[in-house]
Amino acid sequence: MQGPKRARVGSEMGDIGLITDAAMIVRDGKIEAVGPQDEIEWIAPADADYCDAGGRLITPGLVDAHTHLVFGGDRLDDFEARSQGKTYAEIATDGGGIWRTVGATRPLNTEELAKRASHHFDLLGRHGTTIAEAKTGYALDRDGELRSLRALQSLRPRVVPTLLAAHAYPKDQDPEAYLAMVCGELVPLAAREELARDVDVFVEEGYFSHEDAERLALAARAHGLGLRMHVDQLADSGGAVLAARLGARTADHLEHTGADGIAALVEAGVAPVLLPGSVWGLGLSRYPLGREMVDAGLPVVLATDFNPGSSPVPSLPFCMALACRFMRMTPAECLTAVTVNAAATLGLETSHGALMPGMAADFAVWEAEDYRELAYWPDVATVHGLPGICYNLNFR
Ligand code: NIG
Ligand code: FE
């Protein structure tokens, strides 16, 4: 992909700057040159190690801009109940949902949490992801949220941590006291110790209100942290308009966002992060208006929302496949959405998400020849390990 190092909008999203018969020169973990092989051959140093990708597709390492990597246990019982027709809300009321995962996460120490987060990150890596945003949000108490943040530090710089203490109100604490603690203690601490880049909040009936989100946004801003928001996932509560008003970096989910919400995001310059894996995971049919958002000129991002409840989906190619089929996005737009546009929401647009001189040599070699295969037969086009070489030269 050529062009300026920033998110792509509108028709730019379909322009992936494809080079056929390409070659790349890599030095000290950075891309020195990239272009048609017959041009690159002339400038390659005589003593360079040569590595033949065998005509395979090479893309930037994929960037997953919305994941929940730190949790204990699983949600197999929820999954089975859902297969019998129970809804997300019913399962939560019956003792499942986020609170079930809190029970399995709170007993774990930092080291155990880090081990699990690392395992989950490796699952993403098997599907071509090399950089991921990762949220806390399954401890819901001061010390557990801090342990979760500290667990994520061991995965830096591959993982960019977000504080999602406002994922749900804990059932064993006064809600007002909890929110006051998050805004007054956790946010300042996360900022002071540089444990998180952003703060996130789940705005939904039964979770956090618009007023709660506003308090959190003020705390985040006061301490120099950005804001990401889970909005309009299960109903249109005006969450996109709220995200725009609060100047969020990203508005995520947006399954129920309509024309007014889209217009507000455009006006405020908020990036939509769409999570079709969670729609699929919950067995729902209402996908976000991806096509309309691209056409409106938004820098659309696709992410997995990898989590034990709504989206046990580690694969970005699978999310691209869903977006092509249910959101009328093209394979090229999807690739842009999981690379350069995703990287831009993490402040990594000058180093990741595109294969351009000066950027990190962070790429995936696929068992595929055509980029459309990623979404066409997701997870058949696997990440390829070149003999003796890691599929991603920068990979851990
Ligand atoms: O992004 N919506 C809120 N949070 C997650 C689901 C969390 C869970 O069910 O464990 C999501 O879909
Ligand atoms: Fe999420």
Explain briefly what this protein structure is.
This protein is 37% helix and 15% strand. By secondary structure, it is of the alpha/beta class. Helix 6 packs parallel to helix 7, helix 7 packs parallel to helix 8 and helix 9 packs parallel to helix 10.
* Sheet having the most strands: 8 strands, parallel
Shape: globular
Bound molecules: N-(iminomethyl)-L-glutamic acid, fe (iii) ion
For the biggest β-sheet, the strand order reads 4-5-6-7-8-9-10-11
Question: Can you give the helix content as a percent range?
Answer: 25-40%
Q: What's the CATH H-level homologous superfamily of the largest domain?
A: Metal-dependent hydrolases
- Contiguous runs where pLDDT drops below 50 for at least 5 residues: 386-396
Counting DSSP H or I runs of 4 or more residues, the number of helices is 16
Structure notes:
There is one protein chain. By secondary structure, the chain is an alpha/beta fold. The chain has 2 domains: 72 residues, Roll (Urease, subunit C, domain 1), CATH 2.30.40.10; 284 residues, Metal-dependent hydrolases (TIM Barrel, Alpha-Beta Barrel). It contains 16 helices and 12 strands. The strands form 3 sheets. The chain has an 8-stranded parallel sheet. The longest helix is centred in the middle third of the chain and has 18 residues. The radius of gyration is 21 Å and the shape is globular. The two termini are 24 Å apart. The C terminus is likely disordered. Bound molecules: N-(iminomethyl)-L-glutamic acid and fe (iii) ion (FE).
